[in-house]
Structure formats: structure tokens, C-alpha cells
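hiii so my PI (J.) wants the whole complex modelled not just the main chain, which honestly fair. so below is everything: two entries, each one labled with what it is. i double checked the lines twice but i was tired so who knows lol
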Amino acid sequence: MSIPVARAASGVTDRDLVLSVLETGEEAAFRELYRRHTPRLFQFVLRFIGGAEMDAEDLVQEVWVNATRRLRDFRWESRFETWLTAIGLNLARDHLRRRKRRGEPESLEGDLPVAAAPHAERMDLEAAIAALPEGYRTVLVLHDVEGFKHHEIAEALGITTGTSKSQLFGARQAVRRLLGSAKEGNHAAYGQ
Amino acid sequence: MQPMDSKDLAPDERAAFDALPRARSPSEFLEERVVGRLRREQLLGVARRRSGRGWSPSWLAAGVAASVALFAAGIVVGQWLATRSTLEAMVTVQQHSAEQAATLVQRSSSAYTAALAALARVPASADSSEVAQGKAAALTALYAVAEEMVRLAPNDPVVVRILQAFDQRTSTDPGSNPVSGGARQVVWF
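here's the output for the full assembly
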């Protein structure tokens, strides 16, 4: 899992900042934490829910509110960023469940930001990930994009490592099929 | 991207995943939204009034260390003062106890004498049993005082004679011994 070093140029660690927030409610310390971790968190949530930016922003806000409420309970047994991602994962899953109950489409491929993906293949891959069923997408994003191990995924999702592995296998096969269809479609289009 | 039959990613597949962006900035307003929400929920304090940054961990550590040092110094100084005070107090009490004892003897002697004088002024018509009780108490006290005096001044002839008089009276009239159990048991209340 490639995690950016949670330390600013000033040498202040995440833990220092969290302590400042806990002890004094210091806004500057919180803003530093926010700026360090939000871009990655936002990208994760955005990809996870299928590309709806407004929803992703609302979720990121909820992640920070939840995390700040529970800061005192964080035991530093994992990286702060991993903890934030886990909170984001749970909130994003709840969001998808609510969306499903409302009968909305599971993924919103049309919301994917085209400008952010200059290469056609990357765009295809983003679109393919967004088009996956939730179970597949969850495991694929966590494993192949975020770099989680199967036992971490199993713990985060409350599933077995075997289930995580089988979901990943299915997800990769589905992405390959989707990408193959896209390429065929592109070739057909180019052939016209 | 090459299709793979294996469950592992092919190198170009891995490269495609690695090329996916890992970070993306949300709108610039989101930070203010989040901070505002946290302020409203009182999870963040208002901006600090003092200039500069808040308490850094190093400042906190230094503050804690200074507090501990001050506390320890307070204990040492307090113990020294307490020891000195105790010594001074003991000396003072010992000095005062002799004075206080002498004063107490003077005051109680005056009270004893005054009480006996009052008893002597009681009219003859008064209750004889109560007068007899007062007389017995006075004799018991006199005997007890003589017992204590002989400890204080064993060779004092007056005290010796008083005790001899009590002993002579007891030998002729055993029932007249004012205190058969010892002077220190003279307590009426």
C-alpha cells in the first residue's frame, strides 16, 4: 500500500496534529490534517461510489465529522490515513445502500470527470471500475487501487479472506470483459 | 491491456491500475464547510487568541516537565520547612510545658484553696453530709498532692511530715485513709 508520508515539511506528524485538536480544539491543526488527507480520501470515495462528485464531497465531510468525534478513541494501531479510509468506506457503503433502496442506478458513469483522465485507457479503466457491482468494485478498489491486503479487506468489510479473494477474482474478470467490450466498441466506431 | 486468464494482474494491467490518480482535490469550499460544521458541533475551538501557533507537543512536554520539577521542589522545600517547624515546635512546647505546668499548679492551687475556703464558710445549718463529702475530697486531694510532691521533692521535710501524718492516721484508723489506691486515681469527674 503506497501511503504518502503523513508528515509535513514542518516535521509535525499526524499524531501531533491530532493531539492538538484533542487538547485545544486547534483549528489550524485540523486544517493541516484535512489538507494532508482529503485529496486521497476524496479520490477514494469518488471512485468507490462511482464518480458522483457532489455526493463524494458530502461523504468526505461526514468522514471528517465522524473521525473528529471519534479521535479520542483512535488507538494508533494503524495509520491515521487507513483509519480515515475505513470510515470513508463504511459511509460510502451506507450511501450506496441508501441509493439502491431509492432505486437509483448503482454507478453513475456519466459523472466521471473526463478532464481528469487524459488517457483513453485510464478513462476506460475508471469507467469499468465504476460499472462494477458494488461487491466487486469494493474489493477491487481496496486491493488493486488502494493496496489493501486481503486480511485487511476482510476485517474492514466483515467478510472472510476467501470471500475477498473470490470477489477480487470476479471483479478482475468483469473489468477485463468491460475493457474488451469498450475496445471493440472503439474499434467499431473508429472503423466507421 | 492484455486479457489474462490468470487471477493475477498482468504487468500492463498493474501499470494501468498504478496510473490511476490516487488524489483529487475537492472543491475549495469543502474545507470551510467541514470546519464550519465542526465548529458548530463544538469539535473545534475558536481561533486561538494568543499569537503564533498553539501548544506544540514539545511545548506541552516542556510544560509538564516544568510542572513536575516545580512540584518536586515544592515537596522538598515543604518537607524542610515542616522539619524545621517541627523541631522548633517541639522545643517551644517543652519550654512552654514547664511554664504551663507551673501556671496550672498555681491556678489549681488557688482554686483548691478558694474552694476549701468556700466550704469553710458554709453555715453550720447546711447539709452535714455534703460538707463531709467536700472535706473528704479535700483530704484526698491533699494526700494526692503530697504523694506527687514527694516525687518532686523527696527530701522536702514539710511534704514528708504531711505523708507521715496521713500514714499515722491510717494506722490508727484504717477507714480514714483518704486514698487507698494511690494518689493518681484522684479523679472526681
